[in-house]
Amino acid sequence: xxxxxxxxxxxxxxxxxxxxxxxxxxxxxxxxxxxxxxxxxxxxxxxxxxxxxxxxxxxxxxxxxxxxxxxxxxxxxxxxxxxxxxxxxxxxxxxxxxxxxxxxxxxxxxxxxx
Amino acid sequence: xxxxxxxxxxxxxxxxxxxxxxxxxxxxxxxxxxxxxxxxxxxxxxxxxxxxxxxxxxxxxxxxxxxxxxxxxxxxxxxxxxxxxxxxxxxxxxxxxxxxxxxxxxxxxxxxxx
Lengths: 114, 114
Prior knowledge:
Shape of chain A: globular
Distance between the termini of chain A: 41 Å
Order of helices and strands of chain B: EEEEEEEEEEE
Strand content of chain B: over 45%
Radius of gyration of chain B: 13 Å
Mean pLDDT of chain B: 91
Oligomer: heterodimer
């Protein structure tokens, strides 16, 4: 069955440090891939998405993600983290032949120290 | 501004009681979704609807019911059959049939048992 794995439940970084959040998917063909961010008690906000083309995707708030087919990964990166980036991050995928369902990873909680 | 409105933000249910969570969108989206979020489990799909007067079960539909009488509204009823209803509930919408568009989320309703 199709799935998304976020291996890191909780990550702590210092403000100004670089960040990489891992995401692996299982699907034979190229899926649609998304990263969402959730602040406490809030809904999810889309950071970026990948459908095809350039494997390095730029998003909002200075985030980017790289699709690597050989590793079945779609890791999220930011060169310099701000305290306001502290939140929970979800990777999600959607199969190309079904446009109505998202499959979410279990999320990675990011904590930022000053 | 267009968006998704969920109400109430907090809801309490007594044993044996049905409760209804509201979700309204003014994005003119055809498709709407309900997710349940539990700590450490990511988001799980309860029900979704791609068109008015039609909806399908998601992965965890037992104990829940929905209706889709209007395009902009997709209320979720948590019935007394749902034995563990305490969770954060998120409503989402997307343009149906446009598979390169992400889902947009409301700010959620937190349901607790009295």
